[in-house]
Specification:
By secondary structure, the chain is mainly α. 78% of the residues lie in helices and 0% in strands.
Length: 195
C-alpha cells in the first residue's frame, strides 16, 4: 500500500471513530431524554444528524448500540473507582452510584445480553469492561481478587449498587424514607468490617 493510500485509510478510520463517538454521545442524550424503553435508532439518528440507515455502518442494531453505551458507562465506572481517594471506600461507592444513576443504557444492555440478542464482539466488549469494573471495585474495597470469597463479595457489592441505583432512579428509595448516602454508608461499613 502506498503512503498516500495509508494516509487515506488512517484518515477514514479517524473519521469513522469520530462519527461513532458522535453517535454514542447522541444515543446517550436520547436515552436520558426518553428512557431505554423508548430508545430507537431513528431517534438517535435524528439527534446525531445522520440518516437512520447510516447508523448501520457503525452498529448492527439497537442492542449493539446499547451495549456500546453500557460498555462506556462501565469504563467511566472503572475510572471513577480508581480515581477515588485511596482508602476512602465510601467516596468510591458514592462516585459509582453517581454513574449508575445516570446509566440508562445499562439495564437495557443487560436485557439484550440475557435475551441472547448481542453478537460476539459487542458481548465480549461489555464483558471485558464489566470485569475491569469489578476489579476496580475490588481494589477500592481493599478485597484481594485471588479468592473466590472476595470475588463473590465484589459481585455482591456491585449487585447492591445496581439495585440501589434502580431504587433511586425510580424514586422508591426516597419513598421508603432512605437517602442514597445513608445506604452507601451502611454498605461501606459492612464491607470494611469484614475480616
Amino acid at each position: 500500500m502506498s503512503l498516500v493510500a495509508e494516509k487515506r485509510a488512517a484518515r477514514r478510520a479517524r473519521e469513522h471513530q469520530l462519527s461513532r463517538a458522535a453517535i454514542l454521545e447522541s444515543a446517550r442524550k436520547v436515552a436520558a431524554r426518553v428512557g431505554a424503553e423508548q430508545f430507537s435508532l431513528r431517534g438517535v439518528a435524528a439527534e446525531a444528524g445522520f440518516t437512520p440507515a447510516a447508523l448501520y455502518g457503525y452498529f448492527r442494531d439497537k442492542d449493539e448500540l446499547l451495549l456500546a453505551l453500557a460498555a462506556e458507562d462501565l469504563s467511566a465506572l472503572s475510572r471513577a473507582l480508581r480515581e477515588a481517594p485511596d482508602g476512602d471506600f465510601g467516596a468510591a461507592l458514592s462516585e459509582a452510584m453517581e454513574i449508575l444513576q445516570g446509566a440508562e443504557a445499562m439495564a437495557a444492555a443487560t436485557a439484550a445480553l440475557s435475551a441472547g440478542k448481542a453478537d460476539g464482539e459487542a458481548e465480549r466488549l461489555f464483558n471485558g469492561r464489566l470485569i475491569t469494573a469489578l476489579k476496580a471495585l475490588s481494589e477500592a474495597a481493599g478485597l484481594p481478587a485471588d479468592s473466590r470469597q472476595s470475588q463473590a463479595d465484589v459481585v455482591l457489592i456491585a449487585a447492591a449498587l445496581a439495585g440501589l441505583a434502580v431504587l433511586v432512579r425510580s424514586g422508591r428509595l426516597a419513598a421508603l424514607g432512605f437517602s442514597p448516602s445513608e445506604i452507601l454508608a451502611r454498605l461501606s461499613a459492612r464491607i470494611l468490617a469484614q475480616p
